[in-house]
Amino acid sequence: NAGVTQTPKFRVLKTGQSMTLLCAQDMNHEYMYWYRQDPGMGLRLIHYSVGEGTTAKGEVPDGYNVSRLKKQNFLLGLESAAPSQTSVYFCASSFRQGQMNTEAFFGQGTRLTVV
Amino acid sequence: AQSVTQPDIHITVSEGASLELRCNYSYGATPYLFWYVQSPGQGLQLLLKYFSGDTLVQGIKGFEAEFKRSQSSFNLRKPSVHWSDAAEYFCAVGAQRAGTASKLTFGTGTRLQVTL
Q1: A71 close contact with B: CB closer than 8 A
Q2: I need a labelling partner for A59 at 20 to 30 A (CA). Which of A17, A35, A42, A88 fits?
Q3: Distance from CA of B43 to the nearest CA of A (A)
Q4: CA Rg, chain B, in Å?
Q5: pLDDT tens-place string over residues A33-51
């Protein structure tokens, strides 16, 4: 059981380059999320999805786009990377039990450096 | 707006000593509360969670947390710390009711150092 898998684990980009981070979960969870983690700021929600084909903005969405074409995958795109996007990115997924949410399961993270 | 405050950025304890990490939250509805732990270079692992019932919840690795509604707190405790507990600890709050997804608001974290 792989859980939540993020690809790649490390990446260095030049300012202005684009890239896509892939998140895959094998738990059949409805909900998926992208967070970024910065020193002293905890984790902040970038975008999330409540189901295949749907996405929504989180707390810090600017400069990022997402897509969820398949239930098990959630892609995070940076169209024109900026040094301010240097961060560790975490994908997570969760499901619902009846009318209640459950805890989120996290991937191992992607460390992105923009130079 | 929901928020989580972890007032201690860094805590150092001796191995075998007791530990309490503080967490205060602000949330408009009934909260779903979590503690996660992150070892260096790793993802987040769930320690414990609370949404209803007994206000003292037990988690993995000997951790427990107590929900106090009157104080809007959800402090994490461990009676005797082990060197392997050195890590960063995050408190988080989210919605109980599905439909809004389990979007979490995290505190800024407390880094625990354990001295031998």
Answers
A1: no
A2: A17
A3: 4
A4: 14
A5: 999 999 988 999 999 999 9
